[in-house]
Design brief:
Layout: H1 3-14, H2 21-30, H3 33-39, H4 44-61, H5 70-78, H6 90-103, H7 105-110, H8 116-125, H9 127-137, H10 142-150, H11 164-173
Helix pairs in contact: 4-5, 4-11, 5-10, 6-8, 9-10
The structure holds fe (ii) ion (2 copies).
Length: 176
């Protein structure tokens, strides 16, 4: 997978600080209080990334029948919340991505049952499923949970409770 992409993710995440205030205010208006509490647990770079993704989704859906539906924006904002469990910063994620690719995804997934670093890599690989659980436990939007669970699995997109035009926007808006 795309070294250029990993490099961009790495260096982009080094920019410090929380999302800009207008983004924070916009997000607070989009998410339910429970979803917002979950979103705020994410580190700054994840919040900046997800706010940018959600803004792009909002713009892409403008003029469609799905415009202004907060479920799709919540899906964009919370899609990677499952990364919290691995506890990795950005360098750790890059290492985890490379290690998981070398070991094979199924092997890496099985590491959830191990300890220490392997377990954290396993948790990272499982971030879609874990994120979906976190959103459901928090009482978040079901569509957001479904998107978190499936966002790296194109085979599942046709069966989601998310219209295709929204899926396409969510995918196109996410540059990682
Ligand atoms: Fe992801
Ligand atoms: Fe993303």
């Amino acid at each position: 997978m795309k070294l250029r992409h990993l490099a961009r993710r790495f260096f982009g995440a080094l920019r410090p600080g929380p999302p800009a205030r207008p983004d924070l205010e916009w997000v607070a208006g989009v998410l339910s209080p429970a979803e917002l509490t979950l979103w705020n647990r994410m580190p700054n770079h994840d919040r900046r990334h997800s706010a940018a993704v959600a803004r792009r989704v909002d713009a892409m859906l403008d003029g469609t029948a799905q415009a202004g539906d907060r479920r799709w924006l919540a899906a964009a904002l919370l899609h990677d919340v499952g990364k919290l469990d691995s506890g990795f910063g950005v360098p750790g994620r890059v290492a985890a991505t490379v290690t998981a690719a070398a070991a094979g995804r199924d092997t890496a997934r099985s590491w959830v049952a191990r300890r220490g670093l392997r377990r954290r890599i396993g948790l990272y690989v499982e971030h879609p499923r874990l994120g979906a659980d976190m959103i459901r436990v928090a009482g978040g939007t079901e569509e957001a949970a479904a998107w978190a669970a499936a966002h790296h699995t194109p085979d599942r997109w046709p069966t989601l409770p998310v219209p295709r035009v929204v899926v396409d926007a969510l995918v196109a808006a996410d540059d990682d």
